[in-house]
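Quick question about two entries, pasted in order.
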Amino acid sequence: MKNIEYWIWFTQAIGYCTPAAKQITQIYDSIEDFYHGGEPEWILSGLFNSNEIDKLLKTPLSVSDQIIQKCNKYCYEMMTIEDSSYPKCLYSIDNPPAVLYISGFLPDIDDRMSIGVVGTRRASVYGMNAAYDFAKNLAKHGVTIVSGGARGIDSSSHVGALAADGVTVCVLGCGINYDYLRENERMRRDITFKGAVISEYPPDTEAYPFHFPQRNRIISALSDGILVIEAGKKSGSLITVEHGLEQDINKKIFALAGSIDSRFDGTNTLIKERVAELVTDYKDILNAYDNLYATSEVTPDSVPYDDYVEVVPVKGKAPKDVYGIRTKDLTEAPAHRDNLNLTKEQSDIYYAIGNKPVHIDEISEITNLPVNEILPVLTILELQKLIKSVQGRGYILN
């Protein structure tokens, strides 16, 4: 997280989705040099108008402190546009995020095939089943699934990737600590076991409507191709497609034909106007890349997501055909052992862990203990073969 305090200061002063962040990296050796150059240098750069320079002058560097403290508290990673690990595919666009906030582990997106899956929040059961099946089968073949974490098509695609024990990246239009769509909280947590929940907005940032079109440029940039399932004519999904084609005119766009319903005119129009390639099977997508990527199935290295969750319609406040997640019963799963010689702290942590992966942050919330105190206890419990770790800082009973 190179020069993180300066980049956060910059975003708090100027905002997000601005080409100025990339332009600074092209003009200056670092954002720190830009900061210390002060008003004369900012004017000379020609990147900012008088109103923006006034904001830079009035925003103190200390504005970064609280955001950094929050990220450290919850073990969120912060990545700046200056970091060597910053995705090249993201840097290549005109307005890359100056800062990425990450919960989990961002895969090496530049060296993995990735497909963005987008579509309506009010999807039909057919559309959600299709998103789930496409994502699950693509993930089985090592494809990273990128989507936005919303209801409907987004959630179905994330869950499909998880069902294959695959990697998925959820790009939010709010902060990763913001209570967005509570019914998807479990899904977002599970994504962090092998993939990542990311945002360009600081952790507690609310979900404002204008954030989502901005967010869509990140989904398209991280994706080698975009699969559209059930989108309207004026939908965010088509904005994602537009971003993708602006970023790379050769970016592949795929679409699944929808029913003859005005809600899905956008998808069908993409096909009719030959902007998108009609697909009926996940193999159509794999074959479109001329064997640049492996197409043999990847053997899962941990318990498949299907083994402990199932996808069900959520009823109540959410639309009735939105996917939800509920835990299955595991009759043969390990149980907590009795008569163990554990301290109170060890016992509290042990009983916070069950038969599904529990992220270390959740253990901290349950036990009200800081992560730095939990880690040595987890090591002891692992050595006693009471628990075992899984990818993504998760733990389950052994």
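Here is the second entry:
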Amino acid sequence: MAIISNPKTLDLNDIQGMVIRGYGKLLETAYFLLEVNNHKDAKTWMQNILPLIDSADISSHSEKTLHLAFTPEGLKALGMDQKNLDNFPVPFKEGVATEDRSRILGDYGENDPSKWRWGGKTNSKKLHAVLILHTKDKETMATFIEKEKERLSRNGGITIIKEMKGYLRPDNKEPFGFHDGISEPVIKGSGRPGPENDLVETGEFLMGYKNEHDQFPYSPLLETNQGNSTLLKNDAAGSGKKDLGHNGSFMVFRQMEQHVDDFWEYMDSKTKNKDGSTNEEAKIKLASKCIGRWPSGASLVNFPDKDPGGSLDNDDFGYADKDPDGLRCPFGSHLRRNNPRDAFRWYNKKQSLKITNRHRIIRRGRTYEIPASNSNDKDEIGLHFICFNANLELQFEFIQHAWANNNQPRHLSNDIDIIIGVPPEGDPNNEKGQFTIQAEPVNQYLDNWKRFVTIRGGEYFFFPSISVINYLTTI
């Protein structure tokens, strides 16, 4: 595989930047969960911040960025006609916390939405939108937050119902200690070069373009004329209607607490020396087998025996030729099962990659920390998981349900994703589950691990184009 060019064909000035850019130099993040109190004043606020919303055009980048997304209730609160709301896809209209979505995602037990801190079933205030801020450092963020809070307070049409903060480590490692954000798809037409295997059709992430099925993804069309519809693009599929989704995406936002001590204590318990002392090298190797990469980010496929160190974010590899039997990177590792690359079909690399690319997501997660409320508790650390996809069912939900939670994938038996997988409701403690490490002459098996991730909040959002945000101020 080789790094290939990817000519810019998209109108990047109309696409909110987070879909295309990861903002790796803007380390601080803040999230304002918002409620619309007065739709006229809310639209005035949106008009005021519209020039600040960062586009995907790299020339627009600065020391701070701002992005905006909406829930169905938020679009309704702004005045969107019900017939136009009805044209949005079912998962978005239902929201992530409904019974149907919980069954698909495995949100039961400790992950049940009734226990979430936001989103969920029990929140008294409505979640209508999320405002996302990025800055280069804490000082700039503090000033940015103060200014935007003052703007909201002065406007009065929208209130903050919850504020959260996150950050990106300079070494880009997530709380378990592994280099994150490496295997990201590159959107065709974005102008960004990348590995050939990671170049994915535009319509997998942005509505209004063909996807890996050579079809236009489902997009919410304007059923009833309202507002200044001249601001909207025509439906690219040729229906003659205006398209609310063009250059937009759907955003998944999940707050995931990571039980870091439990994770490393488990790895230690399975790799101790005969005298009971810690075998640090074996512990790290086992954890890397579970994740699917070394802590540095180096691929197990290219470096099967030891972490070469450094920041090796090489993503230019496949499984089919170098590791068809999973002896380097286990079939059930977190990264391999959620991005099987060219080894989804063992008999056809090209078809495998095509199938895999129909289920890709663009991740934009950031670490968060919450200090303990008293001396007996531990600080909480985890991930504000964000991803973008044009089809919630075929991308995010498919990955979680069919790949992470599936305990009967090819080559495996009773194996779920050891990081984010959810055991069947009939076996909530995963007593029948295992993690298989392919080895010679016989496989190795791990069992009796605690769940290392707990969901603390979440929702699905419509992440519209900049022109559609402008349109929403006119309805």
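Reply: The mean pLDDT is 94. The chain is about 25% helix and 20% strand. Hope that helps.
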